[in-house]
Amino acid sequence: MKVNTFDSNEALSSSLSERIAELLAQAIEQRGEATLVVSGGRTPKPLFAALNEKDIEWSKVTILLADERWVSPDSDDSNDKLIKTCLLKNKVGAAKYVSLFTGHEQASNAAAALEAKVAALPKFDVVVLGMGNDGHTASLFPCCAQLEAGLTQSNALIATQPTTAPYNRLSLTKQRLLNSHHVFFHITGDEKWSVLQTAMERPDPTKYPISDLIHAGSTPIDVYYSAA
User: Fold this and answer.
1) In a domain, 173, yes or no
2) Which of 37, 96, 157, 158 has a CA that sits 20 to 30 A from residue 140's CA?
3) How many CB atoms lie under 10 A from the CB of residue 140?
4) Whether the predicted model's global pTM rises above the 0.85 cut
5) What is the pLDDT of residues 138-151, one digit of tens each?
């Protein structure tokens, strides 16, 4: 696993967007299509802005989220809203978007409804994941009863109920996330860096779920980190 360090999230995002665009363009050239999985939250906003300027055949790219908070799509906490307002515009607006929000009352019902569709997607070309201060990634939280299933089951999707974060969630599972040609962890801040180092050095998926992905050894993983 290669760790790339930067002075700012803006510099990181510029470099990572170049790499993502390169990989997507290669996939389009080789297979005529590409898939990109992204994460929500504040951290990737500069990355989304940088991707907006990349001149690739976005109409041949399918984009989906790694996870979704089970809130109204009009909520400021909705990852779906974030993607639609910050990523799916300018050049990227031509991409195909697979939303994880179905309108079902429960995330578990959405998982059942979307399972076949998400499972049938080809091997992802690029997955970009963040990490929380508790070591969670996507919506695979150390505090939720569904963690073991999310790390071990063969399904593409799982509904999770974290006890230390608001909202029920819908998340891609570890197996589906790692069914990818490239995985990038986009990490900012000293506290998260400390957690990531611990997860890299002392695998403990029950405490730091991200460590289970890091040590799976099945998919190339790169870390893009900035202290600011």
Assistant:
1) no
2) 96
3) 31
4) yes
5) 999 999 999 999 99
Give dist(CA 126, CA 212) in Å, integer: 18
Which residue type is seen at 145? A
- CATH number of the domain to which 220 belongs: 3.40.50.1360
How far is C-alpha 79 from the geometric centre of its chain's CA atoms? 11
Q: Give the chain's length.
A: 228
Within-domain flag for 176: no
pLDDT (average), residues 52-72 = 98
Whether 171 is covered by a domain: the verdict is no
Domain count, the chain: 1
Q: Are strands 126-129 and 183-188 parallel, antiparallel or unpaired?
A: parallel
Asked whether residue 177 is domain-assigned, the answer is no
Helix, strand, coil content of the chain in percent (nearest 5): 40, 20, 40
The secondary structure of 58-82, three-state, reads: HHHEEEEECEEECCCCCCCCCHHHH
Domain that holds residue 149: 2-166+183-226
